[in-house]
Specification:
This protein is an alpha+beta fold. It has 2 domains: about 5-275, L-amino peptidase D-ALA esterase/amidase (4-Layer Sandwich), CATH 3.60.70; about 285-400, Ubiquitin-like (UB roll). Helix content is about 30%, strand content about 25%. The protein is built from 11 helices and 15 strands. Strands 1, 2, 3, 4, 5, 6, 7, 8 and 9 form a 9-stranded mixed beta sheet that branches. Strand 11 (about 340-345) and strand 12 form a beta hairpin. The longest helix is centred in the middle third of the chain and has 23 residues, at about 255-275. The radius of gyration is 22 Å and the shape is globular. Residues about 185-190 have low confidence and may be disordered.
Length: about 400
Amino acid sequence: MKEKAINIIKGGVTSAKGFLAGAVAAGLKKNDLLDLALIYSEVPASVAGVYTTNRVKAAPLELTKQRVSGGIGQAVIINAGNANACTGEQGMPAAMEMARSAAVALDIPEEYVMVASTGVIGVPLPVEKIVKAVPGAASSLSKEGHDLACQAIMTTDLVPKEYAVQVQIGEKVVTIGGMAKGSGMIHPNMATMLCFITTDAVIASDVLQGALKGSVDDSFNMITVDGDTSTNDMVVVLANGLADNPAIQMDSEDYQTFCKGLSEVCRALAKSIARDGEGATRLIEVQVIGAPSVQDARLASRSVAGSNLFKAAVFGKDANWGRILCALGYSGANFDPALTDILIGDVAVAKDGGAVHFDEEQALKMLEQDPVKVFVDLKSGTHAATAWGCDLTYDYVRINGSYRT
């Protein structure tokens, strides 16, 4: 059977039918920068979500988790500049007030509004600034507003992150678009990030949840910048059904097609987060094959991508393959080091767990590329996985040494 094509299109969270977005400056960031975003569906939508595994969870995340469990949503309100995390008894009322103000401005049920926050932890959220700014955010909603919304959710991000695709379900074209923020405190499970995805597909919330979980496992849970996982991380998907496709059923051909489109969006956004790692100059892509299981392949690839020693070596353009083998060894993956082959780009630097002669100048050229590609064959099975990270530079310390101030 011929595989259905995934068409990449311009846009983000407003690419799908019936979705609008907008943003304003509420005064949470300095210099009157955009810091409050709204995403709105013209009709109620099925919703699904995946969240941080950190035991310390921010109030907006807890509220959104409750709302998503209801299966229906219509809007997301997001602020940057303050995480509303570790703020004690003030946290949940502030998150609920954000949702309430959005619901009033949009004239929708309060329980249909999800909330997300990002920024400094442990500082009370000045929710009165948000409430005052919400009507302006609602007035700014448009199909073109995806760009402003993308900018509004950024913190230390250097670039906005959005992506959209189209797939065919039955005789209908289904669009899937998303936006994300993330640059530091990035590590599975999940990375410190916010991601919002919209689609006009007809799909029930439980089926959407299954599709999202699988897509996140192979994308956002396969990136790492610095080994830290935060308190506010979430991926939320809204599906409003305006594509009018046949309802997508679990494990059907249409489901597989939808999952491929959703995974394409998730992987693209995940890679853009890793590439934009704080102070980073190059993306690192680590592909592991020949593993005994998918879990072993994921453990191995994530361990290499997350090794601070190897990340520093990539920054210094040093083909120090011993750091790769070392990271594989403490990854928890099941493999035989004496069988392992390692390549940097197309240069074989180790075979059967030992040194081989290689051209240092050619290896240097591979380490200058973006992305820097690492290929590992464990020769212990048939499973594979790919993880993404970035190099570790002086600027990472500079940025995080003064993040709060």
